Structure formats: C-alpha cells, structure tokens
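Fig. S4 source data, part A: sequence.
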Amino acid sequence: MPCTPPFGVKALSSNPRTSTKSSQKSVDVAVEFDRVTLRPRARLVADADGVLVER
C-alpha cells in the first residue's frame, strides 16, 4: 500500500526543469517563487484547494 506524504505538492508540469549548479551555498535566506517570498522558518500549508504562506 503506498504511503501518503504528510505535505502537499503543487507542480506546474509533470517534468522538473534542469537546475543550474553554482558553488555558492546559502542557509536561512529568503527565497522567492512567482512573487511570493518564503522567509526562513515561515509556514507553508497546502491542500487540494491551494497553498497558504505565512507572512
């Protein structure tokens, strides 16, 4: 029996884009996806209806 993950996954397509590699690494920094900024330790909650990001 397959296990259901305890988190939501949203995808724009069925195939991931190839990532770019760089020698720079960062930890605890804000990242932005489609004009939405995710800050370190912010909560992101997803279900079948959508995604909520804590501000």
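Fig. S4 source data, part B ends here. Residues 28-55 form one domain.
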